[in-house]
Amino acid sequence: MTIAIDFGTSNTVIARWNPVTQQPETINIPALSLQQSRNPPIIPSLIYIEDATQGKVLVGQEVRDRGFDLKNETRCFRSFKRGIGADIQGFLPEIDGELITFEQVGELFLTKVIAQLAPMQGGVDSLVLTVPVDSFEAYRHWLGKVCQALPVERVQMLDEPTAAALGYGLADQEVLLVIDFGGGTLDLSLVRLDQSVQTKKPVGFLLKWGNKSLGENSSQKPKTARVLAKAGQNLGGTDIDNWLTDYFAKTQGIAVTQLTTRLAERVKIQLSTQSQASEVYFDDENFESYELQLNREVFDNILTEKGFYALLDESMTSVLQQGRRQGIEVADINAVLLVGGTVQLPAVQTWVKQYFPSEKIRCERPFEAIAQGALQLAQGMEIKDFLYHSYGVRYWDRRHQRHNWHSIIKTGQAYPMSDSVELVLGASLENQPSIELIIGELGDQTASTEVYFDGDRLITRPIQAGVTTVKPLNDQGTAKTIAKLTPLGYPGSDRIKVLFQVDEQRFLRITVEDLLTNETLLENQLVAQLS
After folding, report:
1. Beta strands in 346-456 (DSSP E)
2. What pLDDT does residue 217 have?
3. Are 531 and 136 in contact (CB under 8 A)?
4. In CA terms, which of 99, 127, 510, 513 is 20 to 30 Å from 174?
5. Strand segments (E) across 427-493
6. Measured between alpha carbons, how far is 219 from 204 in angstroms, rounded to an integer?
7. Which of 53-67, 216-230, 261-275 has the lowest mean pLDDT?
C-alpha cells in the first residue's frame, strides 16, 4: 500500500492510493483523527508523553479528548515541527529524568501514527513524505533517519508546494503558483506540469528504496513537475494565534495560557467566515468572565503591526523575480493554488488578489491537496527540482578578523550537476599534517526569522536584514578533515584540489586530489544531503 503523509505544524493529513479507483483518498484513523463536518479528517499535530522512558505517548485527537492540550504542562507538545533541526533559543524540558528534544518528539509522533495506520491498510510498503520548501538540511536529515527505522520498504520526499500543485490535478502544460500557508511555514512554489514519455526509471528523491522500482506497475503515463521558483518564510497560523493571545492579554489583562491561545485560535477561525467573532473565557482563579471580541478591521491592524504583509510581499516578490529569470511573467501563471489552514483567512485571500485576478485563484482543497498530490510521485511522476539554498566553505576574513563564507554552489542549481565545482587549497602552516574544510548551507541574505521560546511557547522573531543564516554540515568530529598530507604541507603553494558535485539523489559529494603526489585522497565522498 502506498501512503503519503503531510506532516504539518498544526495538523497532519494522510492519504492513500486506491488501486481500484486509481484515485487518492484521505484516511481517517480512529481515535487520532479530528472529525469535521466541512473538512477532511485531519490529525492535530499534538503529542502528550505519558512515559518518556518507555516511549508511551498520546497523539492527535487523543490529546484533545483528555484535555491535555489546554493544560500548561511540559509533557504536552504542539508546534514541535518548527523546532526540528532549528537552533532553538531557550530551554528544552526534562521529562522522567530525560532531556527531550524536538527531534525525539517528532519521531514519537510519526512512529505512532504509522504504527496505527499499518494494520488498517494491510501494511505500508511505500511512503511519501512532504517537507517545507524552506527547510534546512538538518530537518531533511532527521526525516531520513526516522524513515530508516520504519518498517517501510520505500520512502520518498517531496516539497509541499510541488505536491499541492499535483494534488489539484490541473491540466498539462500549466504554470502554477502554489501558496502553502499552514501552521508553521509559508511556502511559495512556481511549478510547471508537463507530459513526459513513459519510463520505468525510479523517479523522485528516494530516502529508502527496496527491490522494486517505484511506479513500475502504474498504468498511468508519467508527468514531469518542473519547479521553476521557490521562496519561503518561517511564518504560520501559530504565530497569528500568539499575536492574538498577546493582544487579548494586553487589552483585557488575561493570562497567556494554552486555553487562552486555543480561544484566540477559535476567534481567528471564526473570522474566516464572519466579520466579527467572540469567545468567552472564565478565569477560575479570580472567578471572572471575559468576552474575547475581535472584528476583521482590528485583526487586520494587528497583522499589519506585526509586519505580516511585509513578509508575505517579500516572499511573493522573490518567487516572481525568480520566475521572470525563467521567462515567466505574472500573466503567464495559469492558476494560483491556496493550500493550508491559514489561506482560509480573508486577509490572506485579499492579499493574493492584489497580485492575481479572482478567476485564477483556487482554494477548494486547502487541507488534502498536499498529501493527495504527493501520491503522484509513487505513480510515475518525475520531479525536476533545484537546490533552494546555496552552499559554501568557511574561510578566515582577514579584513574583518572573523570567519566568513564563500559560496561554491549557488541557489537555483539543478541536480544532478553536469560539471563539478573546483576549489584549490594550500597549507597555511609549516609541517601541516592535514587540511580541514567546513562546508555550510547558506540561507537567504534578506530578512528572515529564528525560532525561540517565549515562556513555554515556541515562536519566531525577525532576524536583521542582510544577515546570512548558516547551518554547518560537517563541523562535528573528524568530518571537517578532508586531506591527510604525506609529506607534510608547507605554505606558499597549492596542495590539494577539491571537486564538488551534487548527484541525482541531492547528495553533496567531494573528490580530493593531492597535487604534490597526484594521489586521490577522497573519491566521490558523501558530505551531506542538500535541500
Report:
1. 361-362, 382-384, 390-397, 402-409, 421-426, 432-436, 439-442, 448-454
2. 35
3. yes
4. 127
5. 432-436, 439-442, 448-454, 457-463, 470-472, 481-489
6. 18
7. 216-230
